[in-house]
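Hello again, I could really use a second opinion on something today. I've been puzzling over a protein and I'd love to understand its fold better. I'm sending you its amino acid sequence along with the backbone structure tokens. It would help a lot if you went through both lines with me. I've dropped the whole record in just underneath, so have a look.
***
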Amino acid sequence: MSEQPRQGAECDLYRDTWVRYLGYANEVGEAFRSLVPTAVVWLSYGVSSSYVLADAIDKGKKAGEEPSPEEGRSTRVALAVVDTFVWQSLASVAIPGFTINRLCAASLYGLRTMTRWPLTVRKWTTTTLGLLAIPVIVHPIDRSVDFLLDSSLRKLYPSVGKPSSS
């Protein structure tokens, strides 16, 4: 992801800067699950979840600051918060965390049954595979969550002024 804001767009702290990478903390935690105490993995979920909550609040605040009639302001804010929170929860925490968890569990099992490598080597190999998978899974998951929300939740509110979560 680029550290520079998009051309003609305001810099979004949660999408255009290093802060974006806090959303991947749980994926890193899942990759290291076989090497670190469970509390460290849960802490990584806390970091990612805090990122999701902060981004949702930020998008709600920005939606509230847009110049428009006061009558639809609270609805616009609520839609921005809900849309961003649901999108980020799925695309940054739940689906990638599950994906990396299952990939690492399967690779650890596969290495145990197919090799005679020492446990430490198997665990580090699994962690490496999990870390290498993170950049590969991000964009397909993001697009899938866009499709899912466009096909469900986003049909419940008007397309005019629809929040952009991705």
